[in-house]
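Running co-folding for adenosine-5'-triphosphate.
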Amino acid sequence: MFKIAIVSAAGGVGRSTLTASLATLLAQREIAALALDFDPQNLLSTLLGSDEASLGGLLPDFLTGKEFGKSALVNSNEVVCLPFGRANEASLVTFEQHLRAEPEWLKKCIAQIDYPSGAFLLMDTPRLPSPFVRQAMVAADLVLAVLAPDVRSLALLPAVETTLSRCAPESQLIYVVNGLDSTRAVQSDLLARFRSTLQMRLFPYPVHRDEAIPRAVANSMNLQSLSPDSLVAHDLNGLLNWLLVGPASSLDGRVQV
Ligand SMILES: Nc1ncnc2c1ncn2[C@@H]1O[C@H](COP(=O)(O)OP(=O)(O)OP(=O)(O)O)[C@@H](O)[C@H]1O
Ligand SMILES: [Mg+2]
């Protein structure tokens, strides 16, 4: 299983959107995709079009001692999603304390999942700093750090690397810019800044801003069915192709691109 943690230091940059979109595109290519919501916002199953506003999920399972992964749901696109689940404030504090005390808790839980070797695991996370992100980084083969083309992402650029070098220095890190509006000169300027600063660590093709994304969510449809020819569908397929021929290419049993 190839494990990707989708992270960022700034909020609202499209982590959950990229997690849900990549998982859906993988499933459409008949590559097993497990989307894991490791964010207490508990939004990923909604983005993936799951009917249930699920109360179940990995946190309630942790609290009740149930086996990790038992509350996973399968959506109409064959994406398996493990929701975070709902819990009260006190339970969340207890869970966070556990995560701080056991930095490899998630990694160990994932190792117990019986999943095909060619499968992908995509982990959505809250923004940094957070014990949830650190757990996902420790568990990941690849950390995909999402940047918005704005000064906030530029200012927070060192945060991901600092955290990663402390908790998972062996993991591969790749940045991707999401939400680019190329008609705005300031965004093109910022993209150039990211390119010169990050060089090979930046995925060369940004994911463009495209209304097709919020429309797909609002209509509970997947992007590929709603707007197969949209710019953003093209961008996301490009990102996925790169993952398949690059970082994830050593997976056994994987369906070829
Ligand atoms: N490429 C895009 N084009 C247009 N809208 C986008 C794009 N990517 C994300 N969005 C929209 O931006 C908003 C924030 O996206 P999302 O919730 O995925 O970000 P996030 O980083 O997970 O946020 P949070 O910090 O709250 O977890 C959503 O309304 C989403 O539909
Ligand atoms: Mg999110």
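Result summary
The chain has one domain: 2-245.
The pocket of adenosine-5'-triphosphate (ligand 1) is lined by residues 8, 11-17, 41, 127, 178-179, 207, 209-210, 213-214, 217, 232 (CB under 6 Å).
Job closed.
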